[in-house]
Design a protein that fits this description.
Length: 326
């Protein structure tokens, strides 16, 4: 029932105070304001301002059972979602003590909630004791997809901030990774460390921390290798998530530059790609770029980044004649 605040450089305890009348299940830290949200078995959510000596500046009431999880909307940090064992997810405004709306659909208590970071999708995900995770459109207040397959309660869920995947964790210790566009299962694994309680991620890399009954595992997801291609004239094109960028490296070079020397160059935004790029390949004449990913390919014009052709396929190869490909 206590909140304790530590300086993680000195490991010194900065503050300790009694926050709730029952166990605290959830903490969320606001990304820009001096606020901390706490959720408790006393069914309430409280907001604390550390600039005002950790004063409670708002109490949110509406759940009628334990509050298990809180997630602040990364696209609108004035709103947040909460998951409760009362079988609901509620969405709130920071300035109002009552919820904006309630998402109902789980058959048992909801343990975890997280917002989608990707593009303009108004989605969040919840995991519950009915052994499912649900993806919700919070603008239309509808369930978009139900992710089934876990054999026990879903205790942790996360939308990865960089990769186009959803990760769900179960009380039997299994982690499942799903594609966030098609909602198909990508892979599943277990480290045999009993029940999963929580996931953690940073905003800067592809690591995922998994908190278990018996310890902590940090894994690396995917590859940190850049997705990049260069044509015969020195024009480089690469992907940063779904954003495509380009520069002409020859125009950036001085005449007396040494091999292996770092050069400064200004990148140009070419456009975006409809699929998450796993490979880029210039055509031999440099006029086109083929993007592969998610069992699909799209061919774009290299300069204007216009879609010329697309289809399904696991791999892609250009012929020497740039009008042919396999």
């Amino acid at each position: 029932m206590q909140v304790r605040v530590f300086n993680y450089n000195t490991r010194e305890k900065v503050k300790e105070f009694s926050a709730h009348q029952d166990y605290i299940r959830a903490i969320a830290i606001h990304p820009t304001l001096p606020y901390v949200l706490t959720g408790s078995d006393d069914t309430s959510i409280k907001m604390w301002n550390w600039d005002k000596n950790w004063k409670c500046i708002q109490t949110f009431t509406g759940h009628n059972y334990f509050v298990m999880s809180i997630s602040i909307n990364p696209k609108d940090t004035n709103t947040f979602a909460s998951a409760s064992l009362d079988k609901t997810v509620k969405v709130w405004n920071l300035g109002s003590s009552e919820p904006n709306f309630t998402l109902r659909g789980h058959e048992n208590g909801v343990n975890a909630v997280d917002y989608c970071h990707e593009g303009d999708k108004p989605y969040l995900i919840s995991g519950a004791d009915d052994k499912t995770a649900k993806v919700w459109d919070y603008q239309n207040q509808t369930c978009v997809q139900t992710l089934s397959g876990h054999t026990q309660n879903v205790s942790a869920v996360v939308y990865h901030p960089h990769l186009p995947i959803i990760i769900t964790g179960c009380e039997d210790g299994e982690v499942r990774v799903w594609r966030s566009d098609t909602y198909t299962k990508f892979t599943a694994f277990s480290y045999g460390m009993d029940r999963i309680w929580t996931f953690g991620y940073t905003g800067t890399d592809n690591t995922l921390a998994i908190g278990y009954d018996e310890g902590l595992v940090v894994i690396s997801l995917g590859s940190d290798e850049p997705v990049i291609s260069m044509d015969g004239n020195g024009r480089i094109t690469w992907a940063r998530k779904n954003s495509i960028q380009s520069l002409n490296v020859k125009m950036s070079m001085d005449a007396d530059i040494q091999d292996g020397e770092r050069i400064s160059a200004t990148a140009k935004e070419l456009g975006t790609c409809e699929i998450y790029p796993e490979a880029l390949r210039h055509s031999p004449n440099g006029r086109f770029v083929a993007v592969s990913g998610h069992s699909e390919y799209i061919i774009y014009t290299a300069l204007a980044w216009r879609n010329k052709a697309f289809g399904s396929g696991l791999d892609f190869a250009w012929a020497l004649d740039s009008n042919e490909y396999a």
